[in-house]
Write a sequence for this structure.
């Protein structure tokens, strides 16, 4: 899990925990078409906009798919990969707070999935993207951009589509500004030659916490967390886990490293990933790309292991930046879909339309917010893609791919969660 | 960036330049098509709701210079087109469709979602040969000269596919599909019978109604059919991905563009920001999937509210609103979704009164992609700044452009070349309009 280092006295943690201390904001302009279920006054008093500053870099690098996946010569493992890695990627890194020399040193050290970001509604987010270039491909002058996928009311300047605004050249930077007004689960990715840069790994999770966290519903104590401004507490949760769903096509990654070309309509993935890792790597602990401790997973720092206590309400944030539909499934536990694409499933008249199911379909570019109650029986449960053919690593035997574990402990086993995916 | 992609991108850019020139004259409509808006849905209508369609063949062009042999439906008074004509009818009234076949094999039309369909006066039913094998989903018109007349009472207001029911995998891949729009009686400005489905028809020359009929092409299948060779379905791989029979950037060209004679339908969206007083109503977009895989369509810059699915309003038993907002419309094969959309200037950035809190880098510190750009070189709606002399501006008055595209990103390519395929652009003009027009 990568957080953001402090600036202006903000703690790294404050970005992940619903920011306390703000006076209640007022919902902005609501109406039949786009408004939330609750009617709201049009004239809102001044809303505070806490300033959040982040610094990302875009570059290339090497990561490690599971070692025991069968070889797929010449694509996997890549002969150019430095030990202990095997796969070439493009990616982002969080360099907030690092010195200029330290930032420059991250060239060629991309991570997948990209740093996970969390904000509060009405934050003023200043996100600087620096393009460090591609260490393995100095012949390329690819730009990078940051597209915050699903962000409504975006203006082209900050939408990150190079053909409709601008891109960041190698060696330059650009500060994007966002002021999210709508809680929910989003994603971000580079939009420069998107079919390539997205597949190569420039994809990450971003989510926005609701104002309702500052004014809990009913008798809920201060500090209660909600996924949305639901008005009734129905999206309350104790723990949250976010999953960037992608596929990895080894041949394309190999060709990018070896100065060859791809026909993207031949897309034929080899690995199916949660947060940049294939099972069983998905359950390994969170890491730190500045440390070699995690070995092959150094640049895949985000864990997908779900630890929770019996009775906990667990929020799953599922975003798909792959090119295939996925059908995420849990056995023995009911799943409740409360939102799709960062919109609470409530009609314009407030009618609740949550869906209780055991499979959650997530298409490319979509997100789902799913809540389950951890069962009373401690033990291990599985979250996996019901598309069984995606539960393999590079065509090998055994279980792999888009799968992780839900480890339920007796009440009190795990302390209060303060950071997502822990 | 890849060498071959660069090559094809150059071609793409050349086409983009043409499209851009046309964007500058969106309101200039050729005399032939003077009844049709330059962008937005183009309806075939008839006072008796009677339409004559001819199944035939022709060619379409793709932005990379390819020419694809297609089959489709044409209005019998006009030439070949892809997709078939958009037929607009009123709910609960009789519809008659006479199909004339000029293809070398039998063909037919099925109307998924319509009930009580009759073929030549008999109930429309699957057809079997004497051995009991299914030969067609519905009564067909014989090869070369046959005809058949379908009748039905138009069903619930919304959007439906019509498509071949004969040799379906081949004929539908070949292009035999079109859109059927059923309008609520008495409310042509609504998607369905609910008042909250109203869309913007304030300018009769430019109603904010758009059809996005999504499909794909494997050129090898089309080549085999053209040459009379067997089709190898096990090798099927789609290479072109289309909205209304066009791929980006052709999707941006106006309706009835002269250089796309068999692909008459634009997919360009042209709106102004939402305003409670001057522009209160949203646009509507009608998504149809005529392919065999999902098309997860992602509009930038705005959510879209799904209010209809497969021709039925999303509502509870007593009218509860079960519509929902999406930033990605994952349209399944054969499915239709009707949405309402607008774009809202929430921050109202203004250079004087509400400046953007960050600076645009100097032009030398930016990467403007390609030889032309839609970017105004400004963050402010209605304002623009100079571009380097090497880059052509497609921007007229500081209007905004957002793209919308399939997020199965291999579908947002032309045979693998990025920024193509199932993609279009939404243009958002300043509230007062664009003086350049």
């Amino acid at each position: 899990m990568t957080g953001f280092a402090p600036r202006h006295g903000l703690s790294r943690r404050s970005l992940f925990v619903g920011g306390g201390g703000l006076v209640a904001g007022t919902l902005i302009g609501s109406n039949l078409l786009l408004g939330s279920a609750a009617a709201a006054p049009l004239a809102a008093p001044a809303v505070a906009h806490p300033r959040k500053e982040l610094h990302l870099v875009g570059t290339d690098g090497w990561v490690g798919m599971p070692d025991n996946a069968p070889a797929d010569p010449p694509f996997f493992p890549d002969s150019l990969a430095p030990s202990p890695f095997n796969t070439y990627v493009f990616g982002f890194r969080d360099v907030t707070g690092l010195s200029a020399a330290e930032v420059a040193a991250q060239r060629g050290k991309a991570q997948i999935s990209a740093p996970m970001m969390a904000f509060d509604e009405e934050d003023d987010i200043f996100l600087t993207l620096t393009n460090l270039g591609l260490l393995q491909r100095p012949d390329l002058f690819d730009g990078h951009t940051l597209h915050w996928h699903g962000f409504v009311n975006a203006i082209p300047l900050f939408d990150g589509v190079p053909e409709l605004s601008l891109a960041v050249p190698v060696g330059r930077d650009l500060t994007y500004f966002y002021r999210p007004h709508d809680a929910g689960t989003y994603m971000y990715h580079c939009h420069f030659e998107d079919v390539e840069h997205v597949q190569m790994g420039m994809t990450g999770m971003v989510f926005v916490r609701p104002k309702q966290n500052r004014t809990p519903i009913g008798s809920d104590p201060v500090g209660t967390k909600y996924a949305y401004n639901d008005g009734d507490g129905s999206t309350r949760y104790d723990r949250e886990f976010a999953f960037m769903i992608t596929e990895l096509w080894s041949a394309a990654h190999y060709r990018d490293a070896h100065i060859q070309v791809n026909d993207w309509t031949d897309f034929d993935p080899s690995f199916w990933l949660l947060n940049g890792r294939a099972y069983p790597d998905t359950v390994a602990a969170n890491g730190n790309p500045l440390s070699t401790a995690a070995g092959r997973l150094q640049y895949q720092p985000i864990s997908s292991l779900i630890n929770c206590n019996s009775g906990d309400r667990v929020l799953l944030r599922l975003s798909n930046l792959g090119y295939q539909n996925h059908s995420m499934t849990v056995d023995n536990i009911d799943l409740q879909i409360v939102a799709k694409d960062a919109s609470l499933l409530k009609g314009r008249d407030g009618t609740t339309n949550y869906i209780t199911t055991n499979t959650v379909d997530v298409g490319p570019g979509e997100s789902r917010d799913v809540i389950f109650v951890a069962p009373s029986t401690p033990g291990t449960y599985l979250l996996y893609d019901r598309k069984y053919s995606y539960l393999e690593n590079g065509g090998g035997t055994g279980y792999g791919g888009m799968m992780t574990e839900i480890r339920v402990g007796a009440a009190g086993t795990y302390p209060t969660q303060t950071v997502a995916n822990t | 960036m890849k060498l071959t992609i660069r090559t094809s991108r150059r071609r793409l850019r050349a086409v983009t330049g043409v499209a851009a020139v046309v964007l500058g004259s969106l309101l200039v409509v050729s005399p032939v098509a003077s009844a049709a808006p330059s962008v937005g849905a183009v309806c075939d209508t008839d006072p008796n709701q009677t339409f004559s369609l001819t199944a035939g063949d022709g060619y379409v062009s793709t932005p990379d210079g390819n020419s694809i042999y297609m089959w489709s439906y044409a209005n019998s008074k006009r030439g070949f087109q892809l997709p078939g004509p958009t037929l607009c009818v009123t709910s609960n009234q009789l519809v008659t469709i006479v199909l004339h076949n000029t293809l070398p094999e039998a063909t037919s039309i099925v109307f998924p979602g319509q009930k009580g369909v009759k073929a030549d006066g008999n109930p429309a039913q699957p057809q079997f040969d004497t051995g009991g094998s299914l030969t067609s989903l519905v009564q067909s018109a014989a090869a070369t000269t046959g005809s058949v007349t379908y009748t039905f009472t138009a069903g619930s207001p919304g959007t439906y596919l019509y498509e071949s029911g004969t040799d379906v995998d081949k004929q539908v891949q070949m292009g035999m599909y079109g859109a059927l729009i059923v309008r609520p009686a008495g409310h042509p400005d609504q998607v369905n019978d609910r008042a909250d489905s109203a869309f913007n028809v304030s300018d009769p020359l430019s109603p904010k109604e758009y059809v996005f009929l999504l499909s794909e092409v494997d050129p090898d299948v089309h080549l085999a059919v053209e040459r009379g060779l067997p089709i190898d379905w096990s090798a099927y791989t789609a290479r072109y991905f289309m909205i209304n029979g066009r791929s980006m950037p052709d999707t941006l060209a106006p309706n009835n563009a002269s250089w796309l004679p068999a692909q008459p339908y634009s997919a360009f969206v042209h709106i102004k920001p939402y305003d409670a007083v001057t522009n209160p109503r949203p646009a509507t977009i009608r998504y149809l999937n005529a392919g065999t895989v999902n098309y997860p369509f992602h509009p930038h810059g705005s959510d879209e509210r799904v209010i209809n699915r497969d021709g039925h309003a999303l509502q509870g038993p007593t009218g509860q609103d079960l519509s929902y907002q999406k930033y990605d419309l994952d349209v399944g094969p054969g499915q239709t979704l009707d949405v309402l959309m607008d774009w809202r200037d929430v921050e109202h950035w203004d250079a004087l009164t509400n400046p953007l809190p960050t600076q645009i880098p100097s032009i030398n510190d930016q990467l403007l992609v390609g030889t032309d750009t839609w970017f105004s070189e400004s963050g402010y709606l209605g304002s623009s700044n100079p571009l380097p002399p090497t880059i052509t501006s497609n921007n007229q008055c500081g209007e905004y452009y957002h793209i919308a595209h399939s997020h199965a990103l291999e579908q947002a390519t032309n045979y693998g070349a990025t920024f193509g395929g199932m993609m279009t652009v939404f243009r958002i003009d300043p509230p007062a309009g664009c003086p350049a027009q």
Observations:
- The helical segments of chain A are 100-104, 194-199, 250-257.
- Residues 289 and 355 of chain A are 38 Å apart (CA to CA).
- Chain A touches chain B through 73 residues (CB under 8 Å).
